[in-house]
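User: I want to check something. If I give you two sequences, will you return the structure for each one separately, not as a complex?

Assistant: Yes, each is folded on its own. Here is the first sequence with its structure:
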Amino acid sequence: MSAIALLTLVSAPGCGRGAAPPADVEAAGGGRDKAASSAPTPKPLTLNYPKNAALVAGSEVEATAEGLPPNRTISLLWGTVKGGWVVQGHEFRGKKYTFAARTLGTVDVDHDGRVQARFTIPEDYGGVHEVMLSADGVTLAQGGVEISPTFEISPTSGPIGTPIEIRVKGLGWRTLESTWVVNWNNQTIGWVSAADTRGTAVARFRATGPTGAHQVKVYTGYMGQPYLNHEQAPNAHLPRPQFVFHVTPGRAVSPSYAEPYPKQLIPVDDDGGGASLQISPTQGPVLTAAVLTGQGFPANAPLTVVWETQAGNRVSGNGFAAQEEELARVMTEVDGSLKLPLKIPDDLGGPHSITVRSGDTILSQAHFVVETSIVSIFPTSGPAGTPVSIHLKGVGWTDYDNIYVATYDNAYMGYACGFNSQGDVVINFTAAGPPGTHLIDLYPSIYQGPDGGQQLYRLPQLTYADDHPGNRIPALRFAFEVTAVVTSQAR
């Protein structure tokens, strides 16, 4: 066993002077031992583990300390942070963390004031963590360890279209440790994060290209681009894993599809006024056939059903605002109930309120979440140079669901917005590449953030299913078959 020194909680600088990472994503506030100012200086807590071993979740560590109050049972604490993505209404506000501590267990101090204990590194954010011995809110001894991230890829072979996962653990919360980037054959697919999920997430993409070996490399890159001279970086000690995926003959490509849509969170409606309103289902694509039911309304009363949305954009200078549309008029039953079949409007993605009103008075409301749906890709085959069009409905309008970002054969192609066209999105591009199957994937990302300059916004977020701020929305998958050019032979 070999001891490690006490590590200090600091943020590394950026690439050269004046390039420090944005301050709004660093830890906020305290959570540190408030009694420390009047308490004795903590004793060193020596933390031992096998020499040259990387500490990861599940690693065993021995903790020893001397000079403690004898014959006591005290707490062993793990220093960490709490927090993650910050979303305020329709706005994405970056990340924020505060220091916190969790109990790993208790240890006994012997009659000579010594402690010798073992503990297991918990699954948590990577980077530096304090380990403390504490009694009655006072830190008696402290040390530190640095947790390394781990990366696993699965599977490692398969035909074109095979879903690939890179499972990550121990991604840090600090700026230079929090964002990673996946390259496929030296082309950037997208970025990887675990800001909301305590350092653990899964990056998802698909195999593409000719039969044979394809290089997959994971780089750090807090701005969303790979940092190539990482050996000279302030965080050069972090791993940069490299994998090889073998594309095998055949195809695993399905027709165009949206991945399964997660159950969306909807606001909890207050029925304090006496009337209650429900809609079934609570989410689906535009033009979904739904049924609105309610109870506790005035008997035999004519009421109005109103759909609320947003209209406008973020770039014209004219802004945007809430907009209402009357869906129907309904007469309640003698018992004050109502039942109304309705069709969900062709509108923006995300949650929409449906209110029942008497005149201008809102009696009750429910919410429906519009899912993004695929209308078509056309055509689906043709020679290189063929114009191709992808048509979507129900793209959202908030900072965090306003865009989809496209890759073509795992290389960044561009992004598309849905707000100005009320969720109706048409993407036009030209087919390219040699004859064979080519993949077009649309990933969720972030339209804009609090600083307006982070380059990782509007790039594909590969950990969208686990760690996307705000709504959890799926990736959309397409394929195009490039055919050989047919030439007529001279007679």
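And separately, the second sequence with its own structure:
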Amino acid sequence: MAKKRDLYEILEVAREASPEDIKKAYRRMAMKWHPDRNPGDKSAEEKFKEAAEAYEVLSDADKRARYDRLGHAGLEAGGGGPHFQSAADVFSHFSDILGGQGGIFEGLFGGGGRGGSFGAGIRAGASLKVRVDITFEESAFGVTKQMDLRRNEICAACGGTGAAAGTRPKRCAACQGRGQVYRNQGFFSVAVPCPSCHGRGQVTEKPCLSCRGAGQEQKTVRVRIPVPAGVEDGTRLRIPDEGEPSDSGGPRGDLHCYISVAEHDFFVRQGDDVIIGMPVPFAEAALGAELEVPTLDGKVKYNMPEGTQNGTAFRLRGKGIPFLRGKGRGDQFVHISVEVPRNLTKKQKTLLQDLAAAMNESNHPGWRSFFDKLK
């Protein structure tokens, strides 16, 4: 197995580099190894993905700290480091940096996204983004959501050609069917979409009446979104080939699903553990009792020992969130909140006064210790 390179070495920065220095370094490396600047160079594409994977870790404070402490093993222990399958995947993940309004390649390489080139005149379709709302329990155990999505589909009348029945598109004379033309930018030339055919490599003289020459029509489709067990709020899931279709014979774009987990009435997530606060009457805390504790799997019995103090936390092993990658689950912690009785009757006050009179220092070691320290 090949040894993984140091992430700082990949971006050519010092280990103490600031976040802004890391971002500038990534921009420099992305510019150097960009696929449009290195057409057909597989080695450059690998370096382009490698730089993106390094930046994905070092731009995140938590991931960077884990990497600084444990190296690549720390990333694997935390669910694995980033892995980009293609340059298009990099564009999709870092569209705000690589392309779009204000992106570093805007106007130079024709934007970013998965719409990057896959060959002469061939581009993937645009990726789509949706928010997927799920419950706390669904985030813990996983769920498959069905969502109605409005997106473009290949026109049934013309089969996506954009040409009227009985006609065919013709090769664009301006770019000779490549879909790209080259423009000089300083010392080098860069490929940009052909302005005559808008990157399609073909022109339509008689457009299809159904789609008006676009080759695509807007439709509502039902999409299946498998949400794995253990996802957190804000997790991004990528559903391949569920985005917009390509207008140049390339693959569909992807569907990026941003998970929004609803808050629970009782449970709070902390990593893979679950926290719950449980009020307990004063007498039960003092005498001990069998509690009926809610968990994600249903209620369980727990024998609370006598003399349980306010703020005590009990652990229920294996009752937390299933691990997103790998087997096992986190734990559940039950935080005890002892309720002091209110609105006492005269009889109840008398009984408590009698109880207090019968108490000695051994019944309140913390109270006595506190005053001893004051002395």
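Because they were folded independently, the notes below concern the second chain alone. The chain is about 25% helix and 25% strand. Residues 124-158+217-263 form a domain with the HSP40/DNAj peptide-binding domain fold (CATH 2.60.260.20).
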